[in-house]
């Protein structure tokens, strides 16, 4: 009788033995009520997620290294083209002379390549993920507008110089590529501002416009790089015809070294920007974290 009571007592409802409730038991904490078992399971989960966390952290570190390299290369491009125009080509003016033309390479490299490239990658910075998209959209749009204005002023400089000096416009491959890049860029900015910033733009339109907007962004950068490289080479051929052996382009005088170096810097800058834009791990997540509350000024969705 006592044996039956012992076997059928209340202790049988929880755990049959002390070994069943030991922290290293295979039973879950819900079955045995063990807090140490739950802690051990949490530790196992954390250990399992560690490689993924390390991979994500290393990816973010690589992004910031490339982003820093992008900024340094962009600054080097601007400094190089300014030194070339000021020290080797005589400086700047707006009087229809060759000094007015010097604004053209400076403004096109600065606007259509450097500011454009920085504006293209600013939306990918991991620090901005999980935050309100609107301020970063506005910063992206503002940088692109600055780049567009600089490129338009650069085009005005070369057209005005050509018109004053009775030189034909838009006859070279360089000018064809440059005009195409600027025109597509202007269209891209208008469509982007209308599609992504205006509050009455439908979500379906934004979803259709997004892949085209991203693709055209890369195309514009490639066209801009091609225009700048061909323009640098064209300018060096015109400027370094030379009556003496030391000033001929074929003998690679110091100005030619500087111009060629500028072309290399522009290509390197473009490659870094395209690398950042092409990496899917650095694309801004579409969804916002739960519990992040804010009131957008216009309209904010998952584009």
Describe this structure in words.
- This protein is mostly helical.
- The protein has a single domain (73-292), classed as Four Helix Bundle (Hemerythrin (Met), subunit A) (Up-down Bundle), CATH 1.20.120.1770.
- 68% of the residues lie in helices and 0% in strands.
- The chain contains nine helices and no strands.
- It is globular, with a radius of gyration of 31 Å.
- Residues 1-48 and 287-303 have low confidence and may be disordered.
Lay out the secondary structure.
Elements: H1 2-7, H2 29-32, H3 35-88, H4 98-101, H5 103-121, H6 133-164, H7 173-196, H8 203-239, H9 254-278
Helix pairs in contact: 3-5, 3-9, 5-6, 5-8, 5-9, 6-7, 7-8, 8-9
Name a few traits of the molecule.
303 residues, mainly alpha, 9 helices, globular, Four Helix Bundle (Hemerythrin (Met), subunit A)
**How do the SSEs run, as a string of H and E?**
HHHHHHHHH
CATH structural fold name: Four Helix Bundle (Hemerythrin (Met), subunit A)
- CATH architectural category: Up-down Bundle
Low-confidence stretches: 1-48, 287-303
* Tally of structural domains: 1
Number of helices: 9
What's the gyration radius in Å? 31 Å
Percent helix range: 55-70%
Structural class: mainly alpha
Enzyme class: translocase
Pfam families: Cytochrom_B561 (PF03188)
Subcellular location: Late endosome membrane; Lysosome membrane
Cofactor: heme b
